[in-house]
Specification:
The complex is a heterodimer of chains A (391) and B (509). Chain A is an alpha/beta fold and 391 residues long. Chain A contains 14 helices and 13 strands. Chain B has 17 helices and twelve strands. In chain B, helix 12 packs antiparallel against helix 15. The two termini of chain B are 33 Å apart. Chains A and B meet through strand 1 and helix 2 of A and helix 11 and helix 16 of B.
């Protein structure tokens, strides 16, 4: 009797074990097409074109050889469809292995498609249990995602891993898909991604570059930030690592170009919303500390007066750059990139309720005041360079 | 000499079955005795019966088994005093026996036996039995020839620092080795005899007041229930006395090291020594003893603690590493970092088998290699290791039958299983590895967790002579953790032990 009972217990436990597994998705690794990156484009006929960059494991094992032979350890396939699912279905028909999105590190959105609106991508992204939320989203600039995914990259075996690493190292603006979706659903309904393009297109040293940021407003690409505008945007957002800024300090002379480069060590952004006469006004104050990375002027930075001069002029330049950036976002993009709507929501919740629905129009004309303060902590040298006159 | 009733009864039956009535008292006639023995020991060519004349006048009969008795001692030390002429004239048989007993008692411990059954028992034990004409009693005494190999360091429990001496197959020597380290009359060694044919001697050693009386009684009770023809090795007893003979986990520790036995005795454990086996059994033990070596206590406590954690880690690896690999590569690809996933995929590209089959093949091959290495004679063993390493390590990968990561996993697992000091624990973990691999191959990480939980439930159900197998962790006894998770310095541990003992004494009152 006792034996029967324990047998019953074991049988019951094994049954539970089998029934409670949920999805039973046993797949050998060599039956998977490991998608490293995917891209979406708007095809000429208005359909959606999905491109996948799939790693070729057999190419990796003898990687050095295959690269010398010009072979790529990746395999790029494209297919068109009315929506993402249909395109994926067509892609699967081309492949002998099952598409696995578990290792997709990069999603490239083609510029044309982004301008057209990316609702379908977001929908597929949010539904698919396969895709991970920590893959990076980038927008192609001036070309299609297909071109980006077809281009080789010499430094890494798999180009997608190259893009992934560039994003991971924060050398430029980097946005993961969960952040992207999060931002789109916030009060400002604005999101940013890195913008990728290929340079040296015609030469053999084809490579990609992420030096711009794509601005999305309500699922639609509205424009790009680049240059110093992007740098100050990153500083304002707190992504100040490697956001070095080089500016003209003195007029160029024969010996000196007159530029100074700063590396930022701390950046504190504070946005204050005030309401007067039922209208909002915003003040952005930016407090940064910086180190001097390069000094190509005749100024001796060990002198406090010179340092103050540089601080003041940098502060001024940054203020102007922020101003143009904000104005561009207001006038051209009509997109609340700094998420100032949220600030009003936090600081004046009751007032926010009254303007919530028309914030997008209010934003374009809301007055913004900018205050910048910069403090140079280290000049980066212990003594003046020999060419500088000491008296 | 204590003897279990059961065993004695069977002995009677066996000998009576031969057609003799040994319960009869010894005959006063020497020739009768001789013919009786010759009948009982028919075809036993190693039985030696010698006639002699005691004190130069009385005829006597000496019976013993060849080589078991130290003939040198017999001839040089005992024969002469017995043959010597005495002043006293003709005595009665009783007086003569007293006289012989007296003369022998300076060298050995003579005993008087009256009954034919005891005569046979003494002879098979290796004692000498002396019959005297017209006496109805015989004298038996023990002058055993100590046949044994020299004391060596046990090869399976080698240490870098510590005594290089191990038990051997002789019970009295093993007892002496323990006694040498614990010089106290509180160290008790009770003798028993087991096996209806073999009559193997065994000793239960414990330190009075330290060992729990309950455990000692429990052991005696279990021993009395044993009904076996022979006990050849401590392994027999380990299984027969164990609380859980059907569990792969050892609830009794076996060792060849006298220092470990002494240390365990001091801790209040009970030790069983069996004649003919160099292994002593220590009980009760917990799971953690399987991961401790005696050397832990001889070296720096910081290093010893590190080693213990290393063993815990590798025991875990030995149990789960292959199954973890199988689960990850067949179910949870997205858990692997991308670059590692790509190299794993690349390695698996040419392999025809699923990861689970591949791992099982390699694991079984490894176990076979290990077994072959143990069994084969030493010169051949080397060939096996070379062939095993070359064929399996190199050729299988090159031929594309097995992927390189699996080789790494299996060899790491193999090394890990050798890190567990207790061989029985190591075997337990090796056996459990296989069902976990199957669970991993069918259910993924979910299956591994389910299997580990099942093992954990099993472990919490185990007891070793009333001691919970996972104590002092479950049930938690924080002071005991000083010797489980870490090896605390002696100053602290000693204080703790004294404290625990005082507490126990108080509780007993």
């Amino acid at each position: 009797m006792k034996q029967n009972r324990s047998l019953f217990c074991i049988a019951a436990l094994i049954t539970c074990l089998c029934l409670l597994t949920g999805c039973w998705d046993r797949k050998e690794m060599d039956d998977l097409a490991l998608v490293m990156a995917s891209g979406v484009d708007l095809a000429e006929d208005g359909q959606l074109e999905v491109t996948l960059q799939i790693a070729l494991p057999s190419g990796i094992s003898s990687s050095s050889m295959s690269i010398a032979n010009g072979g790529k350890p990746v395999f790029v396939v494209s297919a068109k469809g009315k929506d993402g699912i249909e395109a994926f279905g067509r892609l699967q028909q081309q492949l002998s292995r099952r598409i696995n999105l578990g290792h997709r590190g990069v999603i490239v959105i083609g510029e044309n498609y982004a301008k057209h609106g990316i609702n379908q991508v977001l929908d597929t992204l949010l539904r698919s249990p396969d895709s991970r939320y920590n893959s990076y989203i980038v927008t192609s600039y001036g070309m299609t995602a297909k071109e980006i995914l077809n281009s080789p990259y010499s430094l890494e075996l798999i180009p997608a891993i190259g893009i992934n690493k560039v994003q991971n190292n924060n050398f430029s603006i980097s946005v993961k898909s969960d952040e992207f979706i999060n931002d789109l659903t916030s009060n400002g309904k604005t999101s940013i991604t890195g913008a990728i393009r290929i340079i040296n297109k015609d030469s053999k040293q084809k490579t990609f570059l992420i030096d711009k940021a794509a601005v999305y407003q309500k699922n639609t690409l509205v424009g790009f930030f680049s240059g110093s505008e992007l740098q100050v945007f990153r500083i304002l957002k707190g992504h100040f690592k490697s956001a070095n800024l080089t500016e003209q300090m003195t007029a160029p002379s024969k010996l000196f170009k007159g530029t100074v480069s700063l590396q930022f060590t701390k950046a504190k952004t504070k946005i204050i919303a005030t309401i007067s006469d039922g209208k909002p006004a915003l003040t952005i104050s930016l407090n940064v500390t910086a180190n001097v990375l390069a000094n190509d002027t005749s100024l001796d930075l060990s002198k406090a007066a010179n340092l103050k001069l540089i601080e003041a002029s940098f502060s001024n330049i940054m203020k102007k750059t922020i101003m143009t950036m904000v104005e561009r976002s207001q006038k051209k993009f009509k997109s609340d990139v700094l998420d100032m709507g949220n600030i009003i929501h936090i600081q004046h919740p009751y007032y926010w309720k009254t303007i919530k629905h028309k914030w997008e129009t209010i934003y374009t004309s809301v007055p913004v005041t900018i205050k910048t303060k910069i403090q140079i902590e280290r000049i980066g040298r212990t003594q003046a360079p020999p060419y500088q006159q000491r008296n | 000499m204590k003897k279990t009733k059961n065993a004695a009864g069977t002995f009677d039956k066996q000998v009576n079955g031969l057609g003799f009535h040994l319960d009869e008292p010894i005959s006063t006639n020497l020739d009768d005795n001789e013919s009786m023995l010759q009948r009982v020991f028919s075809n036993c060519t190693d039985l030696i019966i010698r006639k002699l004349s005691l004190f130069d006048s009385k005829p006597g009969l000496v019976v013993y088994l060849d080589v078991l008795v130290d003939e040198m001692l017999w001839n040089d030390g005992l024969l002469d005093p017995l043959m010597e002429q005495t002043d006293e004239g003709s005595e009665t048989a009783e007086q003569l026996i007293e006289q012989v007993k007296y003369r022998l008692s300076s060298v050995t411990k003579p005993e008087i036996i009256t009954n034919g059954k005891h005569v046979v028992q003494r002879i098979v034990k290796g004692d000498v039995v002396l019959f005297i004409e017209s006496a109805s009693e015989a004298i038996s005494f023990c002058i055993k020839n100590q046949l044994h190999r020299p004391l060596e360091e046990p090869s399976t429990e080698a240490v870098i620092r510590g005594p290089r001496i191990g038990f051997i197959e002789k019970l009295p020597i093993n007892m002496a080795l323990i006694r040498q380290q614990l010089r106290t009359p509180l160290l008790k060694m009770e003798k028993f005899s087991l096996g209806t044919i073999s009559h193997t001697d065994l000793t239960i050693a414990y330190i009075e007041n330290k060992a729990s009386q309950q455990v000692i009684q429990d052991i005696k009770l279990r021993l009395s229930k044993i009904d076996m023809d022979s006990i050849m090795e401590s392994g027999y007893l380990e299984e027969l006395v164990s609380d859980h003979p059907y569990s792969p986990f050892p609830v009794i520790q076996s060792t060849q090291r006298p220092d470990l036995v002494s240390a365990s005795l001091i801790e209040g454990k009970v030790v069983m020594l069996i004649d003919g086996s160099p292994f002593a059994l220590i009980m009760p033990i917990t799971l953690w003893h399987g991961f401790q070596t005696v050397e832990d206590y001889y070296m720096n406590f910081i290093f010893a603690t590190m080693l213990r954690w290393l063993r815990f880690l590798f025991a875990y690896l030995a149990l789960t590493l292959p199954s973890f690999y199988v689960a990850i590569t067949t179910f949870h690809h997205e858990m692997i970092p991308t670059s590692l996933a790509l190299s794993l995929a690349a390695a698996r590209e040419i392999v025809p088998f699923p990861a689970m089959v591949e791992t099982l093949i390699m694991e079984i091959t490894f176990e076979a290699l290990r077994e072959a290495g143990v069994r084969l004679p030493r010169p051949v063993g080397q060939t096996v290791s070379i062939v095993g390493a070359l064929v399996i390590g190199q050729a299988a990968v090159q031929a594309g039958i097995i992927s390189a990561p699996v080789i790494i996993i299996v060899s790491l697992t193999g090394i890990a299983s050798f890190l567990i000091p207790n061989p029985t624990m190591s075997q337990a973990i090796s056996i459990l590895r296989f069902p976990i691999v199957v669970c991993a191959g069918t259910f993924g990480l979910y299956g591994i967790i389910a299997a580990l939980l099942a093992i954990l439930i099993h472990l919490t159900n185990l007891h070793s002579f009333g001691v919970p197998y996972l104590s002092p962790i479950a049930p938690l006894r924080p002071s005991g953790l000083l010797d489980v998770l870490i090896r605390a310095p002696w100053q602290i541990m000693h204080k703790r032990k004294r404290h625990a003992q005082q507490k126990m004494e108080l509780e007993e009152q």
